[in-house]
């Protein structure tokens, strides 16, 4: 007697029935059964920034409106009696009608700060540190994380800030003002990377190459900070003094109080 093998259609129907019976044994309805499937969650960009913050090899800060509460060039302009003219030029520069170096040169040519004026300004109008920046830098130093100041401002105004925060002077990257022998303003050093558009990114590239840092975090309030990531591995937007909407919208992590960064370490 020969045995007959069931047709493919019969076999498929049998398997389908068995699968459906198994599903019903787990739940009364197919929709409930599917709801038991594990949900795999992916890490969002904010979580990635926080993880990089906790594992950073080095941290770089912008200075104006980040480490300090004001824009130093605007404050110096007011002190020298040129506040309104510089403010009007700054407003035009924000519209994108000129690049960073052009705006810097034009503002300095209006102020023309002398050595004596800068010394007087530093004594009579010392920079106001942003709340909790000192505690944050101290915490980073405790963890032996190098801290750098990268600014489109001026070394002569930033060095006292670095000293107050116990940041080595060699960790300050900013523009150098030039003076004649009589102390009058003579221009600025155009070889400094921070004097041109994209200069902060150039500094970060150099730090990575020189010190072989794998992970650098940049913290700042402005567009020149935002554009420096990459090469920075993460950018944290800061709005504790002024909120710039483009930075707030594009930053993967945006804070308004340095306490949030202290707590996240």
Automatic annotation (TrEMBL):
One of its GO terms (cellular component) is cytoplasm. The active site is at residues 62, 64. Residues 1-21 form the signal peptide. Belongs to the HAD-like hydrolase superfamily. SerB family. PANTHER family: PHOSPHOSERINE PHOSPHATASE. It comes from Megalurothrips usitatus. This is Phosphoserine phosphatase. Its cofactor is Mg(2+).
């Amino acid at each position: 007697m020969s045995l007959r093998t069931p047709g493919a259609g019969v076999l498929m129907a049998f398997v389908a029935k068995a699968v459906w019976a198994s599903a019903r044994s787990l739940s009364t309805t197919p929709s409930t059964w599917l709801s038991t499937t594990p949900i795999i969650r992916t890490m969002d960009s904010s979580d990635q920034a926080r993880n990089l913050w906790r594992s950073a090899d080095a941290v770089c800060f912008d200075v104006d409106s980040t480490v300090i509460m004001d824009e130093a060039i605007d404050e110096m302009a007011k002190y020298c009696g040129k506040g309104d003219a510089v403010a009007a030029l700054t407003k035009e520069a924000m519209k994108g009608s000129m690049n960073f170096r052009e705006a810097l040169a034009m503002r300095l040519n209006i102020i023309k700060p002398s050595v004596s004026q800068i010394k007087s300004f530093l004594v009579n109008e010392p920079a106001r540190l942003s709340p909790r920046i000192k505690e944050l830098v101290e915490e980073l130093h405790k963890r032996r994380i190098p801290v750098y100041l990268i600014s489109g401002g001026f070394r002569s105004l930033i060095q006292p800030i670095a000293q107050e925060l116990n940041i080595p002077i060699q960790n300050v990257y900013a523009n150098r003002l030039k003076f004649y022998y009589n102390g009058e303003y003579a221009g600025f050093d155009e070889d400094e990377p921070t004097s041109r558009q994209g200069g902060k990114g150039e500094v970060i590239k150099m730090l990575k190459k020189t010190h072989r840092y794998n992970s650098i975090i940049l913290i700042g309030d402005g567009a020149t900070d935002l554009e420096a990531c990459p090469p920075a591995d993460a950018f944290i937007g800061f709005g504790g003094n002024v909120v710039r909407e483009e930075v707030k919208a594009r930053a993967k992590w945006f804070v308004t109080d340095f306490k949030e960064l202290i707590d996240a370490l």
